[in-house]
């Protein structure tokens, strides 16, 4: 028999199954979203550049003490007294002059020590070669003051060297006695430490002008006229310019005639003098060496000279009297310019120095040799009188100098107590010896020895009225 299925019951089962499945599907769709997982920590490597630090030991030194003068503050502290000198002893400096100055300084130091030194203490001379270079001289000046412990500096030939050393001396308060450097400015700066016993440029420039003005119109033509025969060299040019600067200031006319050297025949220049409307009162021969002697004889041979009331003025070459009379036999009446002490101006010390100097050079000492010798003797004299060798005491003693030395009688009328006013008294007269012997001598007899020549100017040193021949 066939089995019969009950469809209503089966349908009920099917409906219930769908309901359950539907319910399950609804529950799943309405369930909340799951919580997202926590973010992971990711470490990214970072490279950092660090400046390297180096630890180093640094030693900071104290500021160095400026150099100081090391001269003794009292003579009791010193075993010897040191005096410094600066002179030119090599090129490009004027070594020939420097050797003469060094010889004179050496003689002076020996003479001081032979006479007992300075208050019983021996003198030691320390010399440096400037070579004529200001910077080098300034360095040596500081070395003398701060290392060699000198009480003073002497010497000095070149003006630019003198200016440089003067500043160093002033900085350290050490006296400087200038023997030869001529620039007015060296003393015109009025530095307390700086003294000069050689002539200034202005003193040398005024010298022939003042002499000509004092002798007046020789030939009576109503004019004062000087002819300048200048050789074609630096020497001739410098002297020509100097005379043309100063002579007109004293009412003296000038005319320059060039002299071309080398030459033995001076006919052309002599002819120009002969052709002048008025002969000059003086003819200055600005010519060096034996050429000057040849020129003088040719002038005299042409009738130009004392016989026509014209005086010939020559330089120191004419002081070699044997050579002069050999080459200029008609030279009576010739005037000779001399810079520095001469045999008739010096005393016992000057003659003694000249004798010792001749052992070196077999000649009468040049002006700069006299002042080199006297610069050291002057310092020694001041140190003997000073309370102490310290700068200000020694400066005061130098200002009070009143002493006869080899080249003359030294004193300084203008200084701290009596400064020059710059108008009636030029500023260069500060600590300046006023009586430097700038001389005119004259041959008054044929064959006369130069040592016997009379001094005709200036009045302070005059031994005979001038001119002796007119």
Model description:
InterPro entries: BCAA_transport (IPR051010), Leu-bd (IPR028081), Peripla_BP_I (IPR028082). Keywords: Signal. The protein has 2 domains: 75-200 and 345-429, Rossmann fold; 203-340 and 438-461, Rossmann fold (3-Layer(aba) Sandwich). The strands form 3 sheets. A 7-stranded mixed beta sheet has the order 7-6-8-9-10-13-14, with helices on both faces. It has a 5-stranded parallel beta sheet with strand order 2-1-3-4-5, sandwiched between helices. Helix content is 37%, strand content 14%. 41% of the residues are buried. The model is unreliable at 1-36 and 39-55 (pLDDT under 50). The protein is elongated. It has 470 residues and is α/β, with parallel strands linked by helices. The chain has helices at residues 7-29, 95-114, 134-146, 159-172, 185-188, 201-215, 234-246, 267-274, 289-301, 321-327, 348-361, 367-385, 391-399; strands at 81-87, 123-129, 152-155, 176-178, 194-196, 225-231, 253-259, 282-286, 311-314, 335-339, 403-404, 409-410, 438-442, 455-457.
């Amino acid at each position: 028999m066939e089995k019969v299925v009950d469809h209503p019951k089966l349908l009920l089962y099917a409906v219930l199954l769908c309901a359950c499945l539907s319910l399950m599907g609804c529950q799943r769709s309405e369930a909340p979203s799951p919580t997202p997982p926590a973010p992971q920590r990711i470490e990214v490597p970072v490279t950092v550049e660090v400046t390297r630090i180096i630890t180093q030991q640094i030693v900071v030194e104290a500021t160095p003490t400026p150099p100081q003068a090391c001269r003794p503050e009292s003579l009791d502290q010193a075993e010897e007294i040191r005096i410094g000198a600066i002179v030119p002893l090599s090129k490009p400096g004027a070594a020939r002059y420097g050797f003469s100055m060094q010889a004179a300084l050496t003689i002076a130091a020996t003479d001081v020590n032979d006479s007992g030194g300075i208050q019983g203490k021996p003198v030691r001379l320390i010399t440096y070669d400037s070579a004529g270079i200001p910077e080098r001289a300034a360095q040596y000046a500081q070395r003398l003051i701060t290392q060699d412990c000198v009480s003073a500096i002497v010497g000095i030939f070149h003006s630019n060297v003198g200016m440089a050393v003067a500043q160093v001396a002033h900085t350290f308060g050490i006296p400087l006695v200038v023997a030869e450097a001529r620039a007015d400015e060296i003393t015109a700066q009025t530095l307390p430490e700086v003294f000069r016993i050689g002539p200034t440029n202005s003193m040398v420039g005024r010298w022939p002008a003042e002499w000509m003005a004092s002798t007046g119109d020789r030939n009576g033509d109503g004019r004062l006229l000087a002819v300048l025969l200048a050789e074609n060299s630096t020497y001739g040019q410098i002297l020509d310019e100097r005379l043309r600067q100063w002579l007109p200031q004293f009412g003296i006319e000038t005319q320059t005639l060039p002299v071309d050297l080398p030459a033995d025949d001076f006919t052309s220049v002599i002819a120009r003098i002969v052709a002048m409307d008025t002969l000059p009162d003086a003819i200055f021969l600005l010519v060096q060496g034996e050429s000057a002697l040849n020129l003088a004889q040719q002038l005299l041979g042409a009738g130009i000279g004392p016989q026509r009331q014209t005086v010939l003025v020559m330089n120191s070459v004419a002081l070699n009297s044997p050579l002069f009379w050999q080459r200029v036999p008609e030279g009576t009446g010739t005037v000779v310019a001399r810079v520095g002490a001469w045999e008739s101006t010096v005393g016992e010390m000057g003659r003694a120095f000249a004798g010792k100097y001749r052992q070196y050079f077999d000649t009468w000492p040049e002006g700069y040799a006299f002042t080199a010798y006297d610069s050291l003797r002057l310092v020694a004299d001041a140190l003997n009188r000073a309370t102490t060798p310290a700068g200000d005491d020694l400066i005061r003693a130098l200002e009070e100098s009143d002493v006869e030395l080899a080249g003359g009688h030294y004193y300084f009328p203008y200084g701290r107590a009596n400064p020059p006013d710059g108008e009636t008294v030029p500023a260069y007269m500060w600590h300046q010896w006023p009586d430097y012997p700038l001389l005119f001598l004259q041959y008054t007899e044929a064959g006369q020895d130069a040592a016997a020549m009379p001094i005709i100017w200036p009045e302070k040193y005059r031994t005979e009225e001038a001119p002796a021949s007119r």
